[in-house]
Write a sequence for this structure.
């Protein structure tokens, strides 16, 4: 009888030790997940602040580039227009004016091309920022769910399946998802730098370059056109 009681005591002790070990592991898991949750929350705040700052910087840069391109094209248009007006005194220069109008149309299209390019980058940046915040919030929700599941397991005491599932989920999230998320956050400044680079390319759009390059040639043709029309008009007067 004494032997049976001793064995029972030993078994109970082993079970108590095992349960204590499991609870310790669950506590460690809960603590680890809580730490990860705190980290993600801090990163979410950082990303939200940086996204707002970067978004404003991109908007400002877009305005600067748009103004720069507008001034270049406006100068080219003024050059072409002055060639038409300065020589077109008492002369029908409709044909010459058509060349000027075509140039102005190309200039407007070039501006629209730049605006579209800049606008698309702003949209891409906005979507990128929103996706980072969305993924961080999704990860935060996942970690919270894992923590709550681990707490539930703890309240249920010894449950081999519950314990191992919670531990597996927690380990997976902390060792894989959290580092991956942090790595994505660290790429934010590089990604924003790429957005600025792309904006610089917008200012050198094909249409803009063609307008600037063709301004002198169009101006020359308009002057020749006006000169020819004036000569024709003078000839008619002599007749």
């Amino acid at each position: 009888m004494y032997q049976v009681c001793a064995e029972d005591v030993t078994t109970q002790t082993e079970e108590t030790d095992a349960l204590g070990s499991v609870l310790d592991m669950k506590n460690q898991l809960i603590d680890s997940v809580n730490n990860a949750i705190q980290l993600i929350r801090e990163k979410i705040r950082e990303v939200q602040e940086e996204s707002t700052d970067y978004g404003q910087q991109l908007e400002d840069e877009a305005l600067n580039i748009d103004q720069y391109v507008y001034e270049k094209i406006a100068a080219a248009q003024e050059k072409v227009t002055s060639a038409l007006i300065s020589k077109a005194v008492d002369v029908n220069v409709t044909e010459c004016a058509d060349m000027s109008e075509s140039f102005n149309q190309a200039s407007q299209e070039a501006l629209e091309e730049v605006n579209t390019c800049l606008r698309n980058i702003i949209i891409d940046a906005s979507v990128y920022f929103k996706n980072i915040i969305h993924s961080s919030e999704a990860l935060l929700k996942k970690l919270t769910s894992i923590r709550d599941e681990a707490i539930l397991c703890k309240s249920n005491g010894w449950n081999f399946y519950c314990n191992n599932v919670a531990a597996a989920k927690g380990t997976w999230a902390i060792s894989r998802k959290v580092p991956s998320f942090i790595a994505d956050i660290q790429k934010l400044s590089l990604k924003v730098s790429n957005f600025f680079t792309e904006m610089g390319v917008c200012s050198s759009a094909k249409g803009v370059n063609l307008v600037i390059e063709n301004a002198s040639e169009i101006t020359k043709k308009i002057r020749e056109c006006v000169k020819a029309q004036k000569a024709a008009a003078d000839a008619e007067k002599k007749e």
